[in-house]
Amino acid sequence: MRVLLAMMLFAGFVGCATYYDYRLDREYGPADPARYDRPPTARADIDFRRDVKPILDSRCVVCHGCYDAPCQLKLSAYQGITRGASKEIVYDAARLVAAEPTRLFTDAGSNAAWRRRGFYPVLNERAPNLEANREGSVMYRMLALKRAHHLPAGAVLPAKDFDFALDRKQQCPRIEEMDQFEAKFPQWGMPYGLPALSEREHDTLARWIEAGAPYTEPAPLPAGYAERIAAWERFLNGDSLKAQLMSRYVYEHWFIGHLYFDDMPGNEYFELVRSATPPGEPIKLIVSRRPYDDPGVARVYYRLRRYPETLLTKTHLPYALNTARMAKIKSWFLDAPYEVTALPSYEPEQASNPFITFRQLPVNARYRLMLEEAQFQVVQMQLEPGDKIVIYSDGVTEAENAAGEFSDTERLRTCLRENASLGAAELHEKLLGALDAFVEGGVVRDDITALVLEYT
Question: Would residue 129 be called left, alpha or beta, if left means φ above 0 and alpha means ψ between -120 and 50 degrees?
């Protein structure tokens, strides 16, 4: 009887989802996964980079920015939003066989390809009109759900209504399942377990979704970058066996980093990738699970690809490229008197063991590069007398005023810049005073802690 009841409930649930999918198709036409591969261009009144991205960066990517983001929904790039979400769990202790990687910008090149890998849209992929963009968007309805059901009063959320356990069961509704989700979890709108977006933030995201999620490509790199990229790609793609083995060693240590040119303005970062095409041609990415896997081509080229996502402190590994570093690497690996007689293979038994793979490289060169790379793990900063370090809890940037606005990171930075000449005690007092003035009449839901240290 229990089995029959369970089967009937499951059939009813599937039936509701199927009917909703049918109704969407009937009213707005069939879904087109390629719609956002050719998105509408930005409009004067709503722009992704100017208006939408700052909100996502300040309120959303802290959870939805990593490889194992909830429902694998990455909001750290436009392409992550259009890719959508997945019900598959990234880290599953019960998994018996390896899962296929789902790295954004790596393992699939179009939204249609992501659909074939089990990802479903969170934006409307049917007819591009205002009603369909609302009703057919999981993202829009999640935001609307939060707006309709604010957090309950109190400093601590009730455990019976909110689950923050690391191993909690994920709820990843498709658009066909949103009616049931809204009825069962009315307080689980986005941001989950956090204060709602301010009215301005919500209206901005809503208008963007209603407009069909317009997007423009990032601006070209500033002048000077092309020259530096070309110089490093020439250096890393020498033809000699010695140069090729050096570059393989460098790649297998740098592939995880965010590389930048420390003499260039702006906040541009790059990643070192393997390509089937040489410098001067568009990058043809060699996709592999591990950096030492067989590339499947006769010659590997090491290329610098512009990093396309929002940087997160918890995954940001900056590594500076400059002429001094290039000169040191050249002296260690290319100028040193030794010979490489043959390139090592990519057979797993050899490639997975760096002591075998790179045994022809001088030991001194290998450990010197690894010491240079130590800043990936321990970042050192040289402070000058008068420099200050500000440590603060998230309550400082998430304090809410009476208008529903949040004291975000940019507001904090502005306060610090305007009062940088003050001593530590005065700066601390000014910071908390500005925060008190901002939240007057608002609701404080989290602790507000700030510590200002001054190097003397």
Answer: beta
Q: Are residues 121 and 186 in the same domain?
A: yes
Do 180 and 253 lie in one domain? The reply is no
| Helices within 377-446 (DSSP H only) | 394-397, 409-418, 424-439
pLDDT, average across residues 204-213: 96
3-state DSSP helix/strand/coil % of the chain, to nearest 5? 40, 10, 50
Angle at 320 between CA 315 and CA 326, to 5 degrees: 140
Give Cα 237 distance to the centre of its chain: 29
Pair (49, 74) in one structural domain? yes
| CB 298, CB 308: distance < 8 Å | no
Q: How many C-alpha atoms does 27 have within 13 Å on its Cβ side?
A: 15
**CA pair distance 169, 184, nearest whole angstrom:** 15
For residue 412, is it within any domain? Answer: yes
Expressed as residue numbers, the domain containing 128 is: 25-210
Residue 249: closest CA among 186, 333, 326: 333
So what's the pLDDT on residue 10? 45
- pLDDT band of residue 382 (cuts 50, 70, 90) is low
